[in-house]
Amino acid sequence: MRYELREAGLSYGPAAVLDQVSLELREAQFTAIIGPNGAGKSTLLNILAGLRLQYRGSCRYGDREVRDWPRREFSRHIAFVQQANAIEFPFSAEEIVLMGRTPYAHGLFESSADRDAVKRAMILTDSADFRCRDFRSLSGGERQRVILAAALAQEPETLLLDEPSTYLDLQHQIDLYRLLRRLAEEQGLAVIAVTHDLNLAAAFAGRIIVLDRGRLVADDTPAAVLNTARVRDVFRVEVQIHEQANGRPFLTYGS
């Protein structure tokens, strides 16, 4: 299933933080959403996740409006990895991942399908080695990988992520974005990630959406979207755009 937005918007008081955004988001594609602070990126993601139901216009997932989906049924299709995850109870990492199976729960105890899904998700996110540790004792990067594993344990069709590489070291940032691209290309997921890292988006996403002041200003491949004029206009910085051997762009900053 895919998303279809038609003139979608959202205001907080008199200020429109997202305004008349129209686009389609389809399966088997890794899409990065970029833009400066206050551009409306997280607001758009929250609408897609069903967390902001007072939006204007239309945001359909499959055959119905996001606001009309039963929450339990919707969560079997959509998984959302938020930027901040404060968990203060003494759960192990594995127990946190098992919570991702909540949309499928039919009793007090997990099923073999639940356990298999958790195992696969923790292996994919390189978090299996600390599955028995208290979640609160983990580093920021380890926590992020566990939360991603919980989302993958939902076995979603669409994976939404808000700054997924926050707290990750360089190796795990690259591993994560490779995984996101693989989930889209090999497993057919719609992967939609908000990021501030233009080079990670350029290196791994198949599509980049640019927001500025709540408006959609570009939507295309990384090579088509990332040029010096657009980066200067949207982010107010000077960059040089270079081309990698695979044809993808990368940016260097400053004069």
Architecture blueprint of SSEs:
Blueprint: E1 3-12, E2 15-25, E3 29-34, H1 41-48, E4 56-61, E5 64-65, H2 71-74, E6 78-81, H3 93-98, H4 112-124, H5 140-153, E7 158-162, H6 170-187, E8 190-194, H7 198-204, E9 207-212, E10 215-220, H8 222-225, H9 228-235, E11 239-243, E12 249-253
Parallel strand pairs: 3-8, 3-9, 6-7, 7-8
Antiparallel strand pairs: 1-2, 1-4, 4-5, 9-10, 11-12
Helix pairs in contact: 4-5
Description:
The protein has a single domain (3-252), classed as Rossmann fold (3-Layer(aba) Sandwich). The chain is globular, with a radius of gyration of 18 Å. It contains 9 helices and 12 strands. Helix 4 (112-124) crosses helix 5 (140-153). The termini are far apart. The model has no long low-confidence stretch (mean pLDDT 93). The strands form 3 sheets. The chain has a 6-stranded mixed sheet with strand order 6-7-8-3-9-10, with helices on both faces. The protein has a 4-stranded antiparallel sheet with strand order 2-1-4-5, with helices on one face. With 255 residues, it is an alpha/beta fold. The protein has helices spanning 41-48, 71-74, 93-98, 112-124, 140-153, 170-187, 198-204, 222-225, 228-235; strands spanning 3-12, 15-25, 29-34, 56-61, 64-65, 78-81, 158-162, 190-194, 207-212, 215-220, 239-243, 249-253. The longest helix is centred in the C-terminal third of the chain and has 18 residues, at 170-187.
